[in-house]
Amino acid sequence: MYFAAIEAGGTKFVCSIGDDEFNIIERISIPTEGSEETMSQVVSFLKKYPIISLGIGCFGPIELDENAEKYGYILNTPKVKWRNFNFMGYLKKHFDIPMRWTTDVNASAKGEKLFGAGKEHKNIVYYTFGTGVGGGAVYGNEFIQGFTHPEMGHMYVKKHTEDSFEGICASHKDCLEGLASGPSIEARKNIKAADIPFEDKVWEFEAYYIAQCAINTMQILAPDCIVLGGGVMKKPGLIEKVKEQFLRLTNGYMEIPDVENYLKLPKLNDNSAVMGCFAMAKEVAKN
Ligand code: ADP
Ligand code: ZN
């Protein structure tokens, strides 16, 4: 019995096949090009296996309301080649199997909650600090959403007094994504984030913004744990700096859980979303 996972990201698509114990049987990465070029490769790969269901985690904004006319579509994305693309419709033409989709960060949140850093918790929020910033919340077995999925990466944060960078979010300039995404770090320094020494002030700013994000999240949703993922969190020492700032900024206001067990790095390496997608695939297969 095979399940399929598609993690559809802005730079790459990761497609995986899992067995009924969620072991990864085969995993490929395809660069994100135009919808037809990329999706035809996705379909050819998935056709190699007799898959019984499919879970998808996709970059947003996407339509998640099953009653909406555009259910299964990518909506008004800045990636013009994917704007208004009927993602689920395309796949349904090729596979007559149950499918479920959600945002890429929701899929990662689900994977980490079920199998990774959030395993002992009921309610978790997952953030990625990568090319963009995004967050997803899983409470019990449900994703938190309202008229649409959350866009946690675009929350506003207080600017560090010494940070003169104006921010790079196309819509808001200095929202969290505008100030703390990988490209925003790199725009300040003109070198790769991984190569910027940890003594550089930019990491102080980064930790300050991520800590504010974690505090806002704790105060609004009071999750049991917050998982901080994405390429930027691979910077050695950053998580410790975030924890320091988090403790300083909470300033004793709330009775908070032990920070070591509250702010965590992901445990599934680059497979958080893949594992979440397998879990969604298994859920729909049963129905
Ligand atoms: P994506 O968001 O496209 O899925 P990633 O989560 O890998 O991809 O994030 C990419 C960003 O993370 C880039 O801006 C890159 O500079 C940054 N990054 C990757 N590795 C590191 C590292 N070791 N230290 C700091 N930043 C890193
Ligand atoms: Zn923004």
Supply the key terms.
287 residues; alpha/beta; 5-stranded mixed sheet; 10 strands; globular; binds adenosine-5'-diphosphate; binds zinc ion
What low-confidence regions span 5 or more consecutive residues with pLDDT below 50? Answer: none
Helix content: 25-40%
Number of strands: 10
Rg calculated over all Cα atoms: 19 Å
By DSSP (H or I, 4+ residues per run), the number of helices equals 9
Secondary-structure-based class equals: alpha/beta
Mean pLDDT: 96
Describe this structure in words.
The protein is α/β, with parallel strands linked by helices. 34% of the residues lie in helices and 20% in strands. It is built from nine helices and ten strands. Strands 3-2-1-4-5 form a five-stranded mixed beta sheet. It has a five-stranded mixed beta sheet with strand order 8-7-6-9-10, sandwiched between helices. Bound molecules: adenosine-5'-diphosphate and zinc ion. Residues 154, 169, 171-172, 175, 177-178 line the site of zinc ion.
Quick overview of this protein structure:
This protein is of the alpha/beta class and about 290 residues long. Helix content is about 35%, strand content about 20%.
